[in-house]
Amino acid sequence: MPGSAARFVWPNVFSVDATGLPRAGAQLSFYQTGTTTPQATYADAGLTIPNPNPVIADSSGQFGNIFLLGAPDYAVVLADANGNQVWTMDPVGASAGVAGAVPVGAVCDFAGAAAPPGWLLCYGQTISRATYAALFAAIGTIFGAGDGVTSFALPDLRGRASFGVDNMGGSAANQVTMAGSGVNGVQLGAAGGSQMAAAHSHAVADPGHSHAITDPGHDHKPNHGSGFVVPQGSGGEISAIFAGGGDVEETATGQTTPSGTGVTIGPGTTGISISTAGSGNSQNMPPAMMLNKIIYTGVGG
């Protein structure tokens, strides 16, 4: 069969007439788009159980499971039990991008608490390869091989956002890289990241610096022992009285010169260090809202 299976969604809700009563016996006819050439639909996602064409609604106005070929697209005609046309849609199908066809393996946000029929929540659980054969054909063991024989795993999207694979289409955009984020952006199903900023350090550059000293100078007062008396002078001037063996006294005057300390202070660094940051105290979370993530299985509904 060309392409992959997609469920035709609309007939899985009630089909009612203008008075609100179910259209028991209503007819859904399927054609190749733009033609009146009948085109097959199937009752299973594996495309092994053909539906009649047209598909006839039951007493509740429902048509059962209808799966479409991936290509070509369809023209769909709804008629009542008497064959009177009610509406038509053309084109319908995955490649046409028209609502009503959902590819198996599609993942979307869901605001409800429980997954609707045909969908499963994505929390990494393992499910049956046989029961969900179409989904297994679509995603395989990308998200986990289960027991390796009878089961496989769904994506685990608990607390995770999703990004487009960085090399989608064959050429890497380098928006998500292992070097920058720790996530392998070119691997389908790769996961990683954290709500906390990664640990990192901040370098300090201090080439050293000098500390200046200002010394305007000061006086030194001489003192030569008990035989040399130096009264307090002014302006650095001293008067000395020498006591001799007789009655002779001599007075001498002198002047001391100012002197600096000769002290110098060498260059020094600050000794400052900055510790590692982002080890669990730095939040890395954008504004967000929590919704369920569901995946379409093509089973049930």
From TrEMBL:
Residues covered by the Phage tail collar domain: 105-161
Give one Pfam hit by family name.
Collar
Listed name of the protein? Phage tail protein
